[in-house]
């Protein structure tokens, strides 16, 4: 059985058991610091916002905006005006792009023997984390779009016709692009077997009000640790946002789920860049919204690079008396969620130890743990049959 429990240190520990050439069990231990809600209890809304912006274990702008907007709604304050909403959308989009680029330019290349693009990432990181005026954000968004189209996925943007079939997809990869080599390496690993019970459902973009209707006025401790939607685990993040994309769908249909997630991440970068240029448009849902659940209780929903971040706050005597935050990792590393399901769904013909280690490592990276993680595999000898 797959289990998940808060770890006592600051690392996500993934431990797999392998027997008879197959991974048979996975345990994911997530440290308590992945859930930031308890850190702000007893703080004023302003202090909590400042604290999370400085000390969040991941997505600091998203955490800060979430608690700020949830507190404002709890106190009965009106929603932000258009200028304030646009400013929030821009800083959240920039943080998402920065998070994705760190993975795509630094963390993914070494998985397949390529040098990380440290200098290229640093060029964008300095600008994406710095406050910027609308004109500067517009220009930076254009540079990020160029990075995706001209460097990462050049082979796809140089052709008008969409590829049909995995063979043409690989041809486009071979036509150029810094991400193409990584994608080629992933596809060469082979298609994955369908997870037992089918893949996890994909979590759509729901408004804060819809979340309150689904979860209730306050989430249970079980939901905070092991969230579900409609009674079932779900995957959140780039794949959930871009599964309808023809190229992502092509990879999913051919059994290349990790490659589909990586390609969706690149699409997400382009979307973030577009939001930096044209935030708060009617054709895309906002990255953040919040509602008053009841007097003194507010709830905010924020889209982050890794997926949905949910935040409930309760205010009493001017301070936060309780705060519940559900990070994206609680969905993606749920005991019956996408990682644990796919981890035990290896190739039909089995795999050696190094193959299993590689498969679990790229699967974890594709689902983007919010903090440092390790992957360990324990070999168990098959039990001998009694005579």
Structure description:
With 387 residues, the chain is α/β, with parallel strands linked by helices. It has one domain: Cytochrome-c3 Hydrogenase, chain B. Helix content is 46%, strand content 17%. It contains 16 helices and ten strands. The strands form three sheets. The protein has a four-stranded mixed sheet with strand order 1-3-2-10, with helices on one face. A four-stranded antiparallel sheet has the order 6-7-8-9, sandwiched between helices. Strands 4-5 form a two-stranded parallel sheet. A hairpin with a 2-residue loop joins strand 6 (288-294) and strand 7. The longest helix has 26 residues, at 82-107. The two termini are 29 Å apart. The mean pLDDT is 91.
Features:
387 residues, alpha/beta, Cytochrome-c3 Hydrogenase, chain B, 4-stranded mixed β-sheet, 4-stranded antiparallel β-sheet, globular
Poorly predicted regions: none
Strand content: 15-25%
The structural domain count equals 1
CATH third-level topology: Cytochrome-c3 Hydrogenase, chain B
The helicity comes to 40-55%
**How many strands, which pairing sense, and closed or not: the largest β-sheet?**
4 strands, mixed
- CATH homologous superfamily identity: Cytochrome-c3 Hydrogenase, chain B
Global geometry: globular
N- and C-termini, Cα separation: 29 Å
CATH architecture: Orthogonal Bundle
Derived structural class: alpha/beta
Question: Gyration radius, to the nearest Å?
Answer: 21 Å
Mean pLDDT: 91
What is the top-level CATH class? Mainly Alpha
Order of helices and strands: EEEHHHHHHHHEHHEHHHEEEEHHHE
The number of helical runs is: 16
Strand tally: 10
- Describe the oligomeric state of these chains in a short phrase: single chain
Side-by-side strand order of the widest sheet: 1-3-2-10
């Amino acid at each position: 059985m797959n289990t998940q429990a808060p770890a006592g240190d600051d690392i996500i520990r993934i431990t797999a058991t392998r027997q008879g050439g197959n991974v048979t069990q996975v345990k994911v231990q997530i440290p308590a610091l992945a859930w930031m809600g308890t850190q702000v209890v007893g703080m004023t809304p302003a202090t909590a916002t400042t604290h999370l912006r400085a000390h969040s274990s991941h997505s600091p702008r998203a955490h800060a905006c979430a608690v700020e907007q949830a507190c404002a709604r709890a106190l009965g304050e009106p929603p932000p005006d258009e200028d304030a909403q646009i400013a929030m959308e821009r800083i959240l989009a920039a943080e998402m792009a920065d998070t994705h680029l760190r993975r795509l330019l630094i963390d993914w290349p070494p998985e397949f023997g390529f040098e990380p693009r440290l200098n290229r990432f640093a060029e964008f990181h300095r600008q994406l984390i710095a406050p910027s005026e609308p004109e500067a954000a517009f220009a930076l968004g254009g540079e990020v779009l160029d990075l995706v189209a001209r460097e990462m996925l050049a082979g796809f943007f140089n052709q008008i016709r969409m590829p049909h079939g995995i063979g043409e997809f690989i041809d486009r990869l071979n036509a150029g692009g810094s991400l193409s080599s990584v994608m080629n390496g992933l596809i060469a690993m082979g298609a994955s077997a369908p997870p037992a019970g089918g893949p996890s459902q994909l979590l759509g973009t729901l408004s804060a009000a819809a979340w309150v209707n689904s979860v209730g006025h306050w989430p249970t401790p079980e939901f905070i640790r092991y969230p579900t939607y409609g009674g079932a685990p779900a995957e959140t993040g780039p794949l959930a946002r871009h599964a309808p994309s023809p190229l992502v769908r092509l990879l999913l249909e051919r059994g290349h789920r990790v490659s589909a997630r990586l390609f969706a991440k690149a699409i997400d970068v382009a979307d973030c860049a577009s939001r930096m240029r044209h935030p708060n448009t009617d054709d895309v849902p906002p990255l953040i919204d919040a509602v008053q659940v009841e007097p003194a209780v507010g709830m905010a929903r924020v889209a982050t690079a890794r997926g949905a971040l949910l935040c409930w706050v309760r205010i009493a005597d001017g301070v936060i008396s309780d705060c519940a935050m559900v990070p994206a990792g609680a969905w993606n590393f749920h005991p019956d969620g996408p990682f644990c399901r796919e981890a035990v769904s290896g190739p039909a013909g089995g795999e050696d130890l190094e193959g299993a280690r590689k498969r679990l490592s790229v699967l974890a990276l594709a689902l983007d743990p919010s903090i440092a993680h390790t992957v360990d595999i324990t070999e168990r000898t098959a039990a001998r049959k009694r005579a």
